[in-house]
Amino acid sequence: MKNQDFFPSHWLRVLLLLCLFFPQVSLGMLQEVVVNVEESSLQDLFMRLEGQCRHTFVYDAGLGDLKLSFRYKGEFDEMLEQLAGKYELEYIQKGKQIFVRKGAPKIQQDPMVLSGTVKDSSGEALIGAAVVVEGTPHGAITGLDGSYRIKRIPYYEDLKIRVSYIGYEDLRLSLPWKSGAMQKDFVLNSSDQQLEEVVIRATKERNTDASARATEQLSPMVLNVVSAASIELSPDLNVADVMQRVSGVSLEQSNAGVGSYAIVRGMPKRYSYTLVNGVKIPSPDNMNRFVPLDMFPSELLDRIEVTKALTPEMEGDAVGGAMDLLMKNAPDDMMLKLNFSLGAPTLFMEGGQPFLQYDQHLTDRTAPHYRLGEGGEATMQDFTTANLVPRPQHNVMDYNLGLSVGNRFFNQRLGVVVAGNVQSMHRGADTEFYNIGFADYVENQMTLNTYQHRQYSSKQLRGGLHAKLDYVFSHRHKLSMYNAYIFEREDQVRETEKFRMWDGVYDPITNSGTAEIVSRIRTTEQNIINSTLQGEHEMTSWWNMDWSAVYSLATRARPDQLVFTRNAAYVNGVPKQVRVEDFGAQYRQWEDNDDQDYSLYWNNNLSLMSSLSLKLGGMYRDKNRSNHYIRYNFKPTNDETREDQDWAYDEVDWTITNPKGGFTNPLNYDASEKILGYYAQWEWEQDEWQVVGGARMEHTNQGYELRHPRYGEEPTANQEYADFLPSLHLRYQLSERANLRGSYFRSVIRPGYFEIVPYDIGSEISDSEFNERGNPDLKRTIADNFDLRYEIFPGLRDNLFLGVFYKRIQDPIENGIVVEENTGRTFLQPDNFGTAVNYGFEVDFTKYFNLFGIKANYTFTESSITTSKIRYQREDATDDSSPIVPVQVDQSRPLQGQSKHIGNISLLFKEPKSGIDMQLANVFTGKRIDQLMAYYEKDYWQKAMWQMDFSMEKHFDFGLTVFVKARNLLDTHRVHYINQSITEHQEKYHGQGKTGDHMIVRDDRYGRNFLIGLKYNL
Question: Is 287 exposed, middle or buried (0-12, 13-18, 19+ CB in 10 A)?
């Protein structure tokens, strides 16, 4: 039976207690007093106060006899104000002593309210700066926007103000007291020491929100920036989750609910690319060239820059955008950051779904074919079985560990930073899945053929290590060396109960009927290695040059992937009779691939005059990919039926039906791609105008070679072409804080290696669950892109963006249906489909108040593409007895993955005085086509989703931070449907709605995830 929704109340109580605990910790840092005296003396009151706090009172003996009645509970400094005002007293604080005397009767005046901002010399707001009235208990801490407010300041002859912030010189000044409000802004200067030997080194803080806003404001193109400060506070642990906070970006999720790929402005994942420190990296994906973003721990980043309009100096293969992951740089001073957290997913807690885990360390990484040599025949002794028996667990724990160390040496010439992170996460899904078939071919009406209850258990171990060294020879020459290793391993078990519905035996009320039990066990290992040597040189006063030499290697392996099938008779949801399937559906396969890149970049920046500069450069990349695949099929020799008990894989006696292995498959191939690109880019700045324009040329030579070609297959093929890619970007400065910008650029999208190989794979191993076929004749896509955006920056961290975009896409690559003429078989195949359009508008808004902030964005997108689908009809439309045949028809639809509505809203709270930070982050993704189907108007749509996440931090003065992160608080499901209404009979099936509702084909529930941990910053 399907597991019931499970969210233990004790976890909810723990979360609520944590929310209450942090404020209590902060209040403990303030002095709270309780006073309740009736007809007592002032001396008695002071003695009671000294028992509650660390202060002592000094006063005249006669004043101590003053009779009073006074009640108060609250902060100590406010109590002093009320006491002094009620009994006409004056007091002054010196250290821990408070001197009190009788004051002269005061003319009734409103107290003073002092407010303003604290910034540094560059105009950046300082969060957490202290503004105090010396010798008094009055003061305030600046908030998110650098503002402060000191209320209820009583009369003083002279206000001595001190403003202080770590790393800056204290500011002291006197102000005259005045009744009512006074506005005063302060600017602090850095307390940097002068070096004996001066090395001119241009540095900027890239990890702050203010730096992110400044980059967006000054950039010549349309750009969105996410700073490390925002990433650190967010509930996100990897780059993919961070990306969904960017305007116009949504995520494509895996079966375990993990977002891996970004969909930018409704453009499918193939239409964007990923950079690390400005250079492109290869993908470990076995079929595609796009990089899975969830591999990258967010902790390694200084910032993320999403460029939505390309300039000529950038590689031209993006339509949606280019995502640049800028890693940590060496700091100016010693830096040490350490964090550790523990957590748990609620999906696998006691009483819920069991987590199935197997010992992947026992897996043979190499298939028997490669160990035995050419022509060798494998026996069962060449295969392990203990690694393919999963064990159920509950209450599994997650952890996250990170360390960053950096400093500069030799008079600031040598910078070193090393950062590492490792995460172990348990993710999964409780899934209801329906296979559909035709109820009426001629009317194009589908029915529910099989019901599957799937349970996914996915253990993900990911992490990375990156090191960067830079050496400043002089103000004219600098070298840097960057090395990174990013890894991810996913151990996944998918258990499926697949009930036949077409034979009329299945009872959805009791879950009784004939079914298959299918276990799929697979380990996926992905690695990215990158090594980049870069130089920056000032050749003359008017010529700057930089270069990069890059080596990258991306690998992916799935060793010993198992599919194990049994037949079962279910009664009341329990398999009563179980027998191992002996006709196909029993196999183990090995897959691996590697993608190796050698790249060179060279850029020259020439200052022709004060307002005009010219940039010339180019790049060359030599990319090679190897793909390997082999499959072994098995058959059981024991055919007995078990009663009330399932089979384990190592309990079956197996024979191998293809002992040499099936490797004569087009999935065994070598591919290559050579790209030569060069550009000319000019930039003109005059008064309020900034104009950047130019063109880029890219020459491409792409091809493949099959290692074991089958009859009729082309063993080798290649295609060569050149693309001219012009662009123009305008920015007009309407005021000091406002811009109007417009952009045009042309870009090219090349086919993936795998798509041009003439592969042919069955539905049992394809991700689409349909037969798939490659297309060696696939052409590249050309896109013309237009942007217009109005920007205003009211504050250093505030922004408002209003933008529109339009994209015209020639020969877009999408999956369409192909009907084989001689056999009638149907395939999904990538092809070029005419011209598509994509257009919409974006709103991006950030506003910080004193203690509160709000970040919000919304993107509306429309797109249209026409592709071929299959529809059945009578061979002779006038003869109802003529045979029904499949025909290809055109269907217009949105692009795959494009949501009409995408929105983010994050509510922020930051209280520097108590060290409390909170964020409530919400993401809305409108309905979209998640999976393209072969049949006319039967694509799988994903319902609109709202996901809510929460994070909270408590900072202590000595560098320690305690934090909590909570994901998917609403336990949001991912639901797929087709645009067809269900019947009265179908509404009784699991997960279906009422008669007339859309037909549900999939419902994934992921549960909630919690982390609690510590961070330490030196």
Answer: buried
Q: In the chain, how many H helices and how many E strands?
A: 8, 56
> Would you call 388 helix, strand, or coil by DSSP?
helix
Give the mean model confidence (pLDDT) for residues 307-317: 93
pLDDT over threshold 60, residue 4: no
| Per-residue pLDDT at 156 exceeds 80 | no
pLDDT digit string (tens) for 40-86? 888 888 888 877 777 788 887 778 788 888 888 777 777 787 788 77
What is the model's pTM? 0.79
Express each pLDDT in 917-955 by its tens digit.
899 999 999 999 988 787 899 999 999 999 999 999 898
**Class of residue 943 by CB neighbours under 10 A (exposed 0-12, middle 13-18, buried 19+):** middle
Phi/psi region, residue 892 (left: phi>0; alpha: psi -120 to 50; beta: rest), is: beta
Joined together, the tokens standing for residue 694 give 């130019």
Closest among 604, 617, 781, 601 to 697, alpha carbons compared: 617
**Looking up tokens 């929105």, which residue turns up?**
903
Q: Among all chains, which residue has been given the structure tokens 């036949």?
A: 500
Torsion of Cα atoms, 849 then 852 then 857 then 858, to 10°: -110
Strand ranges of the sheet holding 813-819, from the earlier edge strand across to the other edge? 760-761, 772-773, 826-832, 813-819
Considering only CA atoms, which of 991, 2, 5 is closest in space to residue 453?
Answer: 2
What would the pLDDT profile of 408-428 be if each residue is shown by its tens digit?
Answer: 999 889 999 999 999 999 999
Buried/exposed 114-130: b ≥16 CB within 10 Å, e otherwise: bbbbbbbeeebbbbbbb
Residue 606 pLDDT greater than 90, yes or no: yes
pLDDT at 193 over 60: no
Q: Do the bridges between strand 998-1005 and strand 884-893 make them parallel or antiparallel, or are there none, so unpaired?
A: unpaired
Asked if 968 and 1006 touch (Cβ cutoff 8 Å), the reply is yes
DSSP string, 860-909: EEEEEEEEEEEEEEESSTT-TTSPEEEEEEEEEEPPTT--SEEEEEEEEE
Q: Which of 207-216, 467-476, 720-729 has the lowest mean pLDDT?
A: 207-216
Q: pLDDT-derived band of residue 192, with 50, 70 and 90 as boundaries?
A: low
CA torsion 214→216→218→223, rounded to 10°?
A: 160
**Tokens of residue 973, six digits:** 């499901």
CB of 922 closer than 8 Å to CB of 34 = no
Residue at 880: amino acid letter: D
Pairing between β-strand 186-188 and β-strand 477-500 as defined by DSSP bridges: unpaired
DSSP string covering 461-519, please?
EEEEEEEEEEEEEETTEEEEEEEEEEEEEEEEEEEEEEEE-TTS--BTTTTBEEEEEEE
328, 419 Cβ separation under 8 angstroms: yes
CA distance 131 to 154: 16
What is the per-residue pLDDT for 191? Answer: 67
> Which two structure tokens, joined as six digits, stand for 279?
């250079």
Q: How far is CA 935 from CA 391, 433, 834, 970, in A?
A: 39, 18, 19, 34
> Residue 214 carries which DSSP code?
H
User: 98 with 89: CB under 8 angstroms?
Assistant: no
884's CB contacts (< 8 A; 6+ apart) are 441, 442, 872, 873, 874, 875
- Give the CA angle between residues 935, 941, 996 to the nearest 5°: 85
- Give the CA distances from residue 537 to residues 478, 604, 608, in Å, rounded to whole numbers and listed in that order: 7, 10, 17
Tell me which residue of 876, 902, 897, 903 sits closest to 887, measured CA to CA.
876
How far from 992 is each of 432, 572, 938, CA to CA, in Å? Answer: 10, 20, 17
